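Sample entry (221 residues):
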Amino acid sequence: MHLRLKKGVLIAFEGIDGAGKSTQAHLLYERLKKANFPVVISREPTEGKWGKKLKGLIKQGENRLMPQKELEMFLKDRYHHIKNIVCPALKSNQIIILDRYYFSNIAYQGALGIPTQLIEKRNREFAPEPNLLFLIEIPPEIGIKRIEAMREGGIDFFEKEEYLNKVSEIFYQLNKPFFHRLRGEDPVEKLSQRIWEITLNYLTTHDLIIDNSHIIYKGGN
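Predicted structure, serialized as tokens:
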């Protein structure tokens, strides 16, 4: 039986390619699910019409659209994602975990020359701020080595070191009260435990759990 929350909670994971954010997003999802929280997980780009187009463009490397047109596609994909997945989950008082969110646009398209303030403004017109954002930070060269170890056929444009250095610098400059910066070189389980502790602390200190009398005994190991 699910625990009940007083309102929905949006948790986002960000970081450069190879940081381990997808792994940590799924580990948190599994821990929350084990603890009987109402939780769903999603990712961007999505598997929708615009998301699939974006994934195809990313694989093409330098032969992509101009950065502004690419941003417009991300915005269209996110708009449908917010409308059809994110907002319904929040309105039904669920926790929704996102593997990438609009902060990736700020960093990745910002590194291509689009003003970061403009990217944030366009997204904030329709995309809710997360309650928690876990930014997993690693040096770009380590992220690239991780990707190369897992993937055959080289790396795509979004994973080239010079470009990722620019992306990483923009992530570094971002500063929001809901940000939690984590060292991506730490062991997976250590990171997962820290993320779990921060999440549980947020839910309890904000009095979001309708009955939390037994929560610390579930999913916290």
